[in-house]
Amino acid sequence: METDGNVQLMYLLFRLHSILPSQYQGLGRNEKRILRVFIEQELKEYREGGEENG
Considering only CA atoms, which of 3, 15, 4 is closest in space to residue 43? Predict the structure, then answer.
């Protein structure tokens, strides 16, 4: 997906966790930062072999 990081994050939040982009946009800066870290960790675990590592 060729977009900026926020659009990619919103896509993943919607696809994996049913969080709408409007819900994400309504969050505070720190909440957005935390969600980004959570998604990055989730992707890292997925790349390393999935749920059995987490």
Answer: 15
pLDDT tens readout for residues 21-34 = 999 999 999 999 99
Please check whether residue 15 is in contact with residue 41, taking contact to mean a CB–CB distance below 8 angstroms.
no
3-state DSSP of the chain? CCCCHHHHHHHHHHHHHCCCHHHHHCCCHHHHHHHHHHHHHHHHHHHCCCHHHC
Please tell me the pTM assigned to this model.
0.77
Question: Could you tell me the CA-to-CA distances from 42 to 26, 29, 45, 46 in Å, in that order?
Answer: 22, 20, 5, 6
